[in-house]
């Protein structure tokens, strides 16, 4: 992995960007799930 990144910094940026975007999507999905669960709990009370 290190050698792969050392060869070309653009690859490193590509990987970081990919991880960042994936994390953002995961966070976004988590927020949506959390809101759904909160709404369901509100309705049941």
UniProtKB/TrEMBL annotation:
Q: Which UniProt keywords apply?
A: Plasmid
**Domain Plasmid partition protein putative C-terminal residues, every copy:** 1-36
Query: Sorted alphabetically, which Pfam families does this protein's record hold?
Result: Plasmid_parti_C
Q: Domain of life here?
A: Bacteria
Q: What is this protein called?
A: Plasmid partition protein putative C-terminal domain-containing protein
Question: What organism does the UniProt record list as the source?
Answer: Borreliella finlandensis
